[in-house]
Here is the input.
Amino acid sequence: MSALSGHRILGPATVVVGAGICCAAVLLGDPTTPGGVLPVCPTKLLLDVTCPGCGSQRALYSLLHGDLPAALHYNAVGVLAIGLLLLAFGAYCLRLWTGRRIRGWQNMRWSAVVVLVVVLGWFVVRNVPVEPFWSLHL
Here is the structure.
């Protein structure tokens, strides 16, 4: 095996193993049970503010159990982010394995600005104490 082919396998394999370990920790830790072994969001704990990432562990747990509605309830933007990360990883693997230039969503001109606006908007909307927005507060 040449060094180049090892690089083409080692990078994606490292990402898959790392993601698998994180998913296993969330699956075994069961963040839907209060007082579990997984840490609580420090922003929620210290400031009682629902940050854009609050509910991500529970959303991932729900996704791992195939419950998309529950995952969207816990953190809809987090579910969208997981989908975008999977697309970016797929583009990375295709580029690495085929040697062709593959442009993913993250290479688009306004992607960073759009992500920032969506995350900031999600942060604000989740903390507005008026219905229907307050139902997004966890």
